[in-house]
């Protein structure tokens, strides 16, 4: 079923594509390859708000997982936990990163294993700007992020 | 239950003692280990994926890079294991003197999901260990690390694990040498190891 949604041969550097909605631009959407489909996957992205109004990322949806949600890894007193993030602020004039060790999309209930080179869509819902769907590139298990030509990844 | 006055005082004293002990544990975690101090030698007895019991002495003569985690962890654990894998690659021949260990703090589920497949996907040298609840607790206490199960209806299987995300370095004679806090770049870990090997 999902095979129709997953592009198995994604063009190189899918994650470098920039998607826009209102004043927001969304780029560096990537995920890490998984070992099978029984463990949750992850979703990372960068959002830049070029406008003058604060916004917030309030949800994600994807056909790749049954229960995608926003999390934040926090280390308190030497203990790492991952509470839900109800809303991730995207303040006016600033960039926010979902990146390893911080905010991330947690893709629980994967429909299929994520293999390096796959890509899948994720729809981000912002409080003010509304929805935008991005292509997420699956990078290797060891990836720390996409390698993009333009600055600031 | 109604408590008499003296009983209340006793309970309050016990509570205070527990708190003080807790504070002591928290701060002792952060205390820098000086050379003058007696060597800190953590221990563990845990089965590997094949069920063979492994202890620290099995790895005598090697530096150990140890990480406590769980395989259902999508953010912190893969990042650290990926760094360990990079370090092992970059060590080249010296990698023979370093043994990376992944100790599961969610052993029952990790055995079911496949511990060896998980560690091997990062690097073939990483050895996964998953004991029973008691062995796991004992290993964690010995390393002075904390982990906790948090019920969470939205999480896979209804719970989430929280744990110390640092990487621990144990010397060839079993002495605890140092920890690398979460997010330490692979290059820094590599440089530290190379200075010791
Ligand atoms: Cu998470």
UniProtKB/TrEMBL annotation, chain A:
One Pfam match: PCuAC
Database matches in SUPFAM superfamilies: DR1885-like metal-binding protein
Highest rank taxon of the organism: Bacteria
Signal peptide: 1-15
Keyword terms, alphabetized: Signal
UniProt xrefs under PANTHER family: BLR7088 PROTEIN (PTHR36302), COPPER CHAPERONE PCU(A)C (PTHR36302:SF1)
Name of the molecule in the record: Copper chaperone PCu(A)C
Source organism (scientific name): Rhodobacter calidifons
UniProtKB/TrEMBL annotation, chain B:
Family: Belongs to the SCO1/2 family.
SUPFAM superfamilies reported for this sequence: Thioredoxin-like
Family matches, as InterPro entries: SCO1/SenC, Thioredoxin-like_sf, Thioredoxin_domain
Pfam families, alphabetized: SCO1-SenC
Residue ranges of every copy of the Thioredoxin domain listed in the record: 35-197
Chloroplast found in the keyword field: no
Name this polypeptide is given: SCO family protein
Keywords, sorted A to Z: Copper
Record bears the keyword Signal: no
């Amino acid at each position: 079923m999902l095979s129709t949604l997953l592009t198995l041969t994604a063009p190189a550097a899918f994650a470098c594509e920039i998607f826009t909605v209102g004043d927001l631009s969304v780029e560096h959407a990537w995920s890490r390859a998984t070992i099978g489909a029984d463990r949750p996957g992850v979703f990372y992205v960068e959002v830049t708000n070029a406008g003058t109004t604060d916004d917030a990322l309030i949800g994600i949806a994807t056909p790749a997982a049954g229960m995608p949600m926003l999390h934040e890894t926090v280390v308190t007193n030497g203990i790492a936990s991952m509470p839900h993030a109800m809303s991730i602020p995207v303040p006016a004039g600033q960039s926010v990163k979902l990146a390893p060790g911080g905010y991330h999309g947690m893709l629980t209930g994967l429909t299929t294993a994520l293999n390096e080179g796959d890509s899948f869509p994720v729809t981000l819902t912002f409080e003010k700007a509304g929805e935008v769907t991005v292509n997420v590139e699956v990078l290797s298990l060891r990836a720390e992020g996409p390698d993009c030509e333009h600055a600031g990844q | 239950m109604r408590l008499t006055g003296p009983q209340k005082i006793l309970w309050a004293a016990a509570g205070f003692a527990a708190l003080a002990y807790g504070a002591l544990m928290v701060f002792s975690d952060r205390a820098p280990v000086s050379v003058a101090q007696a060597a800190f030698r953590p221990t563990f007895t845990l089965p590997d994926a094949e069920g063979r019991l492994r202890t620290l002495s099995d790895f005598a003569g090697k530096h150990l890079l140890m990480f406590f985690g769980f395989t259902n962890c999508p953010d912190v654990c893969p990042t650290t294991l990926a760094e360990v894998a990079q370090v092992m690659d970059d060590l080249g021949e010296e990698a023979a003197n370093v043994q990376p260990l992944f100790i599961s703090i969610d052993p029952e589920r990790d055995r079911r999901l496949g511990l060896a497949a998980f560690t091997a996907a990062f690097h073939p040298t990483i050895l996964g260990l998953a004991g029973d609840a008691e062995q796991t607790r004992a290993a964690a206490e010995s390393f002075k690390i904390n982990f906790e199960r948090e019920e969470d209806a939205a999480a896979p299987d209804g719970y989430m694990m929280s744990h110390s995300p640092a990487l621990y370095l144990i010397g060839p004679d079993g002495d605890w040498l140092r920890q690398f806090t979460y997010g330490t770049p692979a290059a820094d870990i590599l440089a530290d190891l190379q200075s010791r090997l």
